[in-house]
Amino acid sequence: MIYRWLIFIIHFLVSFAFADEGAVLFQNVCAQCHGLKGEGKEGVRAPSIANLPNSYVITQVTNFHDGKRGSDMKVDPQGALMALIAKALKPEQVQAVALVVEKLPLVIPAKRMIEGTDVAAGKLLFYEHCMECHRYNASGEMAFGSPPLVGRQDWYLLAQLMKFKNLHRGTAKGDEKGAKMVRMATLFIEDEAAMKNVVSYILTLNPTPEEETLFKAKGK
C-alpha cells in the first residue's frame, strides 16, 4: 500500500506545474505523512515539521536527495522513503515547500515530560553539550545549522539521538553538522537513560498554551 502511494506521489511530482507550488506540494505530498498542520503522525513515524526554518528544511531534504540521510532501509525505513520522495523533487520545489513549512505555526507536543526520567540531569547535559548550538531555550541557531528542538516529539528526538549514537546518521561524507552530532552523542550521552533525561528536559522548554502566541507563524 505505501509503495503504491509512493508511486503516485512521485508521478505527481514529476508532472507538477507551477501554481502556488509550495502550498500544493505541501498539501499533496508532505501532509500525507506530516499532517495538514505539519504536526506529524506518530503512527507512520513522521515528526512535526511545523515552523522549521526554511534553510534547515532545504538542507535536510537535500541530504535525503544526496544520500546523506535515508540510505539504509534496514536501519532507517522512514528516512529511506523520504529519500525516494526527495529524489523526485526539483530544487525550486524544495525551496517553495520549505517556505510553506517555515510559516506553519509551531505545534506544541502534547507530551511535556518522559515518565521516570531525571529532568535535572537532563538539564545539566543540555546546558553542557546542547545549549551552545541549540540555544538555552532550544529555539535553535541557524548560524550553526542547528534547528529548533521545541515543537518536536519525544519519540522523534530520541530516535534521532539513537541514530547519531549508533552511527546511522551523520556519518556520510560532507555532512559536517551531522558529524558534530555524532561526536556529541557518542562522547557525552552514556546510555538510553541519559538520552531520555535530556529529551525530557527539552520537552519542558516548549511554550505553555499562554506563551504559544510568541511562536506564531513568521510573517503573520
Any idea of the CATH class of the largest domain? Mainly Alpha
Task: List how many beta strands DSSP finds.
Answer: 0
What's the architecture of the largest domain, going by CATH? Orthogonal Bundle
Q: Give the overall average pLDDT.
A: 90
Radius of gyration: 17 Å
Q: Kindly state the percentage of residues in helix.
A: 40-55%
Give the structural class: mainly alpha
Q: What is the CATH superfamily of the largest domain? A: Cytochrome c-like domain
CATH topology of the largest domain: Cytochrome Bc1 Complex, Chain D, domain 2
Strand content bin: under 5%
Major sheet, described briefly?
A: none
Number of domains: 2
Shape: globular
Secondary-structure element pattern, one letter each: HHHHHHHHHH
Number of helices: 10
pLDDT < 50 stretches: 14-19
Kindly report how far apart the N and C termini lie. Answer: 38 Å
